[in-house]
Specification:
4 helices, ten-stranded antiparallel β-sheet
Length: about 190
């Protein structure tokens, strides 16, 4: 089936993550918690995208249907300056696009960008999970393994609520690799 969304995770409460996102890229409107994830209404309406927020005791994960937030390396680094650890990752398997950005305290730990037919551009050493579960797994297993390794497990019980993102202000497009000045091309696996 393939993955067609992204995740943005941070060591913050759900409200803390949304507040930080609001300072960088516009308005987020959380809805009431739902008992069953199948009850989520991810229709953003006329004014944006429908997202889902999973709130855990020590972190929050935003399911990003727009791919605008999860694939914004500079935003991830900025969020980590404010919140501690932040990870953005996404897969759009129809086009063959995958990305992962992980940062802690404003320092880029790992950034990988994959586009179909192009070289893999990467910053930072590979995560231990990448050899056995590459981020290019079409069902998102590699991205979920990376999230778990970085402290954002997505199993168990979380408070889940819909969130509407207006996209009135978009994240800055500057790639995080330009922040560090070091990018390298990795061989395809």
């Amino acid at each position: 089936m393939g993955m067609h969304h992204g995740y943005l995770a941070a060591t913050a409460s759900g409200s803390g993550l949304l507040a930080a996102l609001g300072r960088h890229c516009g308005d987020f409107f959380p809805g009431a918690p739902v008992a069953d994830p199948d009850d989520l209404d991810l229709d953003g309406g006329d004014g944006g995208w429908g997202l889902a927020l999973e709130e855990w005791p020590h972190y929050a994960i935003l399911l990003d249907t727009s791919l605008l937030l999860a694939d914004a390396p500079t935003l991830v680094v900025e969020l980590s300056r404010e919140l501690g650890t932040a990870v953005g990752c996404m897969a759009e398997t129809l086009s063959g696009a995958y990305s992962l950005t992980a940062a802690r305290d404003g320092r880029l730990l790992r950034q990988v960008s994959v586009q179909a037919g192009a070289e893999i551009v990467a910053v930072g050493p590979p995560l231990p999970t990448e050899a056995a579960r590459p981020i290019t797994d079409p069902d998102g297993d590699g991205l979920e393994a990376a999230l778990e390794y970085l402290g954002f497990a997505m199993h168990g019980s979380a408070v889940i609520r819909p969130v509407r993102y207006t996209a009135a202000r978009l994240p800055q497009p500057k790639p995080a690799a330009t922040v560090t000045g070091r990018a390298r091309v990795e061989p395809r696996r």
